[in-house]
Each structure stands twice: as structure tokens, then as C-alpha cells.
Design goal:
Length: 285
């Protein structure tokens, strides 16, 4: 069991990777300067834009991606675990991966997660999103052992699928992650309850860095980057949508203590679901 400082970085990414890298660099330096040894950036750190053609024109494969190169350098410079919450990565055929990457203190990539669940929705306020038109969904997730904690990786809309996080917890994750670019409408309604629910269900910390504010492509994101403890208590939050760094102390023994107190992972049982269609009632003799 270990104790360390974790930071969630809140950004307001633009369509320009160079500007986003500059913003990320300043915020990572602030987090590291305040003692964070694990630092997480939000979903779509490298570029946030609605225009599919514009996105395809700037994305690179992972080896050539400037955000990955910058993150590798920052992890190495500050000796931290740097979790790029996601950035768009070209994967061929006019498709893009919404990819999270975890960089070790030596600058190497230790784990990747491509967003599994595509945000294909029509909201009440007229917003319509079809991520599947551009992004190639991932088919699996990972948990990664680090000297700090065993970390489960997910992205944004993945948070609405509790089975993903339960599987990660069953595989040993004590820190779960869901870096995001939540819309303002859905965030105001559901952000906090989803983060706290996943923490409570799994007896794990949840760390979710977020995009926040009105972006150049016109979208509005909710902000409120958050760190929740295994009992469901919010221990750090950017209670706004402006760029920020939030930091909390993570004691991984807290996860074991909560799981011993409420052993729902251990007590889970297999069950079946019966679908009963009711019709005319039979007479009782």
C-alpha cells in the first residue's frame, strides 16, 4: 500500500495542438511543483473540434503525435506518472482512436486505452453527437500496475457503463479513471453522481480530469475535475469550468479498508434474468 499525491488537470482545449501542448505543459509543471507524482489530463487534450475533416487533417499516428512527444518529455523531466486522459490518434482508413496513454517517469508508454463507448446521442437542448462517425471504438480495457497503485483506464462516456469499472476492480484496480469532456447539460445532471457511484460500487478512488468552458468549436463542457475516495467522498474538485489543477492525497490502503467494510465485490453472485410476459390470468381451481 502506498500514499501519493494525484493531480487532475482541467483544460479548455482548442483545435490547435500546439496551443494545447503549451497549456498542458504549464499545468503539468504546476501539478508536479506541488508534489503530484501522478498527473492526469482530460479527454481530447490535444485537439477539441467538431469538424471531422479538420480533425483528420491534423491527426498523426502515435509515433508522430506531438502531444505524446510532449507528454513523454514532461514525465521524464519531472519524474512523474503522466496520464494523458486522451488525445486523437490516427488509426487508418479515415478513422481516429480516442486514446488515453500512461507515461512512466522514464518517458515510456506503459499503457493505452481506446475509448470503448461512443457518445452517439441527441440531447434535449438540440445538441447531437455521433462519435462513431469519426472514432474507432476500443474493444478492451486495461489495468496497469505502477509503484503508486493499480490503475484502471477509461474515458468519459465509459463512466456510464459500470460493468467496465467492476471488471477493473475485480482485476485489482484501486484507482479508476474517467478523464472527460462532458457536455455542460449532462455534466450538470449526472457528473458527480456517476463519479461517486463508480467509487462506491468498486471501493476505489476515481480520478477524472475534465475539459471546461466554452470551446472554440462552440461546444460547452462542464469542468468540475474531481477526485473521489473509495467511500464516495469528494476529496478534491475544481468547482468551476476554468483551467485549474486539483490535487489530493491518495492512500491506497483506503481501498482495501472500504472493500473489507462493504465486501460487495466478494459477495457478488451469478444470476439469471427471466422475462415473463403476462397474458390472460388462468383460473385457480
Amino acid at each position: 500500500m502506498t500514499v501519493f499525491k494525484a493531480a487532475a488537470i482541467q483544460m479548455r482545449s482548442t483545435p490547435d495542438p500546439a496551443r494545447n501542448i503549451a497549456a498542458m505543459t504549464g499545468l503539468v509543471r504546476e501539478a508536479a511543483g506541488n508534489g503530484a507524482s501522478y498527473v492526469q489530463t482530460p479527454e481530447m487534450t490535444g485537439a477539441l473540434m467538431r469538424d471531422r475533416a479538420g480533425l483528420l487533417a491534423i491527426v498523426c499516428d502515435e509515433a508522430g503525435d506531438p502531444v505524446c512527444a510532449a507528454a513523454s518529455g514532461l514525465a521524464r523531466e519531472y519524474g512523474i506518472w503522466l496520464h494523458v486522459g486522451s488525445t486523437p490518434i490516427a488509426c487508418g482508413g479515415g478513422r481516429v482512436a480516442n486514446r488515453a496513454l500512461l507515461f512512466a517517469p522514464d518517458g515510456g508508454v506503459r499503457a493505452r486505452h481506446d475509448k470503448i463507448h461512443m457518445f452517439d446521442v441527441d440531447l434535449d437542448n438540440g445538441e447531437s453527437w455521433r462519435e462513431s462517425a469519426t472514432y474507432r471504438p476500443g474493444t478492451g480495457t486495461v489495468v496497469v500496475d505502477t509503484p503508486l497503485a493499480t490503475i484502471g483506464m477509461a474515458i468519459c462516456y465509459d463512466i456510464r457503463f459500470p460493468q467496465l469499472f467492476r471488471k477493473q476492480a475485480e482485476a485489482g484496480a484501486t484507482v479508476l479513471t474517467a478523464p472527460a469532456a462532458f457536455t455542460r447539460q449532462t455534466g450538470a445532471a449526472h457528473w458527480h453522481v456517476l463519479q461517486r457511484a463508480r467509487a462506491i460500487e468498486c471501493g476505489a478512488f476515481v480520478i477524472s480530469a475534465a475539459q471546461g468552458g466554452t470551446h472554440e468549436d462552440g461546444r460547452e463542457t462542464f469542468g468540475h475535475s474531481i477526485i473521489v475516495d473509495p467511500w464516495g467522498v469528494v476529496i478534491a474538485e475544481a468547482a468551476h469550468h476554468d483551467p485549474a489543477v486539483v490535487i489530493a492525497e491518495i492512500d491506497t490502503s483506503r481501498s482495501a479498508a472500504v472493500r473489507a467494510r462493504i465486501p460487495n465485490l466478494k459477495n457478488a453472485r451469478a444470476f439469471t434474468v427471466s422475462h415473463i410476459a403476462t397474458g390472460p390470468q388462468e383460473a385457480v381451481a
